[in-house]
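S., here's the first fold you wanted:
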Amino acid sequence: MKKSMRRSALVMCAAASALGLAAAPSSAVPSTVWTVNPSPADFEAVNVGNIVLTATIPMTCTVSTADGSMESTTGNPGDVADIDTMNFGASGAPCTSVLGNVTTTSVTPWDVVAVDYDAASGVTTGYVGSVVANVTAGACKFTVSGQASATYTNSTGVLAVNSTAGELTVSNPVNCGAIVTPTTKPTFKGNYAVTETGTGVIPTIVGSNPPA
C-alpha cells in the first residue's frame, strides 16, 4: 500500500517487523517482488476490537480508523502502503486511561512495510514504520515514535499490529512524572480490517522472487 513518488524519510528498516514478527512462518527465500491487488489504489481501515497503546499504563481506543494508498513494489523490505491518516478515538468515543481521556495526534505518513511472505497461509509479515504520534493523557504529554511489528492476512484483510517493547520510544514527556519517561518502552497493539476505498474489496499482498 504505497503512494508512488513518495516515501517517508522517517522509515526505519531495522528492528522487528509490524506487518512483523508475529507468529507467521517464514519463507525460505525472502521475497523481493510484492504484488498488491488492486494496485495502485486507495484503502481504508477500521479497528476490529480495541486498540491499545501502553506506555506504563494502557490507553485504550474503542474506535480507530486509517486511510491511505497501496501499490505493488520491489525490494526487501518493500514499502507496500502509505498511511496518510491515522485516527485514534472519535467524537463521543474518546480513548481512555487512568490519567483521563487520551488524545493522540498522528504525524503521517506512516508506512506499511513487507518483509516476508508465507504462501501457504497468505500472511505477510513486516512492520508499520515511520510511526510518530503526539499523545496527551490527562495532563501528561509525550511523543511516541519508531515502528511496530505487524502481519497482514490476505483471507481476512486484517492488519494485525503487535509491537514489541523497544520498537517504539518516548520523547519529550511533560507532566508525566515517573509514569512516562524517556526510558519507557511503549507498545501498540490492535487489529484493523482493510478494504479498498469505496468498494469493500479486501486487498491482497503476495511476495515472490523473480526467476534466476
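And the second, which I think is the more interesting of the pair:
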Amino acid sequence: MTAALPSPRIDSAEAIAQCIDALVGIDPRLGPVRDFAGPVQPRINPTGFAGIAKVVTGQQLSVTSAAAIWSRFERLPGTLDPVTYLTLSEEAVRATGFSGGKFRTVRVIAEAIVAGELDLDHLETLPAAEAVRYLVAHKGIGPWTAEVYLMFCVGHPDVFPAGDLALLKAVQHGLGLDARPSIKEMIAIAAPWAPYRSSAALLFWRYFAVMRDREGILL
C-alpha cells in the first residue's frame, strides 16, 4: 500500500507559509532566511504532457528566457498534446526557440505517453523518491526535470532539486556556508527539512531572487 503524502500540497501561499513555519521549527537557521525573503508564492503549472514540456523548456535557461520561449511554444497549434506534438516538424518547433535537444526530449516523452509507457497521472499518489525513480526511468527525463515537475505541476510537498545552481548559491549564502555545497552535500543538508523540502526550495529560490535584486547576482 502506498504511503500517504506527509504534508499539504504546496498549491497556495497559506500552505507554503505553514510549511515554512514548520521548517523554522525544525531548523532555526531558516528564520532569518524567511525574514529576508518575505512571502513565498506558489508556482503552479499544468500537469501532464503540457506541464513536463514546460519544465523541459526551462532547463538551463533563465526564468525570463524560458518564459519567452514557452509563450511562443504554447501558441503553436499541437504542442500541448502528445499525439499532435508527434505530427509537428522539428523546424516548426525549433522556430519557437527550442533547441534540437529539447525538441527530441519532448518527442521521446510524447512517444512514451502515447505508447502507455509513461503515466503522469498516477504520480499524484506516490511519495517523492518513488515518483522521481519512476520519472527518471524514462529516457529524456533527468533528476532536475523530475523534481521540478513534481514540485510545480503536481504540487508535491517534499521535493528538493539539489542540483539546481540557484538553490546551491542561495543555501550557501543564506546559511553562511564557507563554500557552495555539492549536490551530495545539499541532499544531506536538506534531509532534516523533510517532509517540507519543497517549501524549503521555494523559500531559497525566493531568497535568491531578493538577494539578486538587491545586491546583484550571487557568484
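Why I say that: Residues 1-6 have pLDDT under 50 and may be disordered. The domain at 13-43+159-215 is CATH 1.10.1670.40 (Endonuclease Iii, domain 2).

Talk tomorrow,
H.
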